[in-house]
Amino acid sequence: MKQITQRKNRNRIIASLLFTLFLITGIILFLSRTKEDFGRQPTTSVLYKLSDIYTAGSIFDRNHTLIAKGLSIGQMQWNEDNTIRQSFSNIIGAPIKKTSASCYSVLGMAAPTLYGYHKTCLDDWKQWIFPQSKNGEPIYLTIDVDIQSAIYHSTKQFDNAVVTVSNYQTGEILGMVSLPTFDPTDPDSIVVDKNGFIDTTYHHSCYINKNLQTSFLPGSTIKPILLGIALDINPDLVNMTYNCKKTTHNFHGISVGCYDGEYHGKVDFESALCCSCNGYPIQLLSQIEESDFEQGLLQLGLDSNETYPNRFAAVGSTFYGNGEHDIANRTLATIGQANCRMTVWYLTSLYAAIFNDGIWKNPTIFYNDPNQLGKGNPEETLIYTKNTASILKKALIAVTKKGTAAVYDMSSLGFTIAGKTGTADTASGKRTVWAVAGIIDNQKPYVITVCLPDQREDASGSTVAGPVMREILLKLLQK
Ligand SMILES: [Zn+2]
After folding, report:
1. How far is the CA of 160 from the centre of ligand 1 (A)?
2. Coil, strand or helix at 196
3. Nearest Cα to 140, choosing from 50, 56, 55, 63?
4. Strands 215-216 and 134-135, bridge-based pairing
5. pLDDT at 447
6. Domains in the chain: how many in total?
7. Which residue ranges of the chain lie beneath pLDDT 70?
8. Residue 335 Cα, ligand 1 centroid: separation in angstroms?
9. Residue 330 within a domain
10. What is the Å distance from ligand 1's center to 224 Cα?
11. Residue at 237 is within a domain
């Protein structure tokens, strides 16, 4: 009798133990599988903690070339090629604990993978209770080491240069160079203040990726982008003509010169973009109601606080910025002055939509899974109608055939290029000059933006940025 009771009790204990174990396993499995749904956002302080525990994972380019890898906690080993190190330096970024700007760098964006945050809850758990040295996971950049090196070689003679190359069909970033650069393996090249921080507030800093972190006056490169808003509202506006002469260049009391003081006479949509007439886009956009125009700006993501997938971050691009929404600011911003400011990446992405039937793609700069390479983010946003995109693309092809971007026409190589140049006068008296190009080809659906700030006052997009674009295009097309 006694034995039977003992056995019964033992069975009960075993059953309840098994049940408890089952319950705990269930909870842990549930937590670890659904952790994304719980909205656990890796905060900066969590990542800082993890970077004290994890040796960073490896960083490869899209061809699986090793760019850098964690050597030990807080230490990275970089590729031995100096061009690779320099050209990738500020994209990958300074050590995340030395900078407040890590959210704009690959180290910051990919930190959850590189520093182990994407491991399961169970792993995290053990990690917090029994901290031990661990290795992060690898990431695969969408950047192509050859494109990166080509850009670097074509721009390194400039003190200040910013270049983005993207695939306009997938939104993948293929090249992103920001000059000046630094050598991440040279201990003397990382200069810190008394608190151990790098100064990244200075907009010309070698430690920041200006493609994402600095916005510039876009000059005439903004014109096609804005004209697209008007064409979406009223496609017939493409037939508007305008007589560009001194007496017609006063808009609501603001006298606007044309590029280098030259008046263009009678211009239509295409010829106005070819010669980069200032009067034409101002006149055309004045046909659009302010409320419709502002709706269009939001559609383009200007003056808004957009966020992007996978922790991708860039400072905002603006039309009115903090300025008044009045006719003076609207007139000047239409030609890329006043409060109109664009990051080089964002301007590139808007041109990408023009070359991609009006479809804007979310940016991708890295994947955790190399099988994703070439796919991009499936989410799409239609920012122009197909008709508008097609009108704009056709006019931009004319700009390289017979307009200000003729220096980088590539018809001799059998390629059609759509392009636009830009020249902006800044408050310092220096100029920011631009060249944008889209390769109209399904094998190389690339969009490229060259931005050269701090140029002399006789420089222009056509004469200074254009030849750099030509050199980069030759390398990309002959690759
Ligand atoms: Zn003009």
Report:
1. 30
2. coil
3. 63
4. unpaired
5. 98
6. 2
7. 1-6, 25-41, 118-128, 131-133, 200, 202, 259-260
8. 11
9. yes
10. 15
11. yes
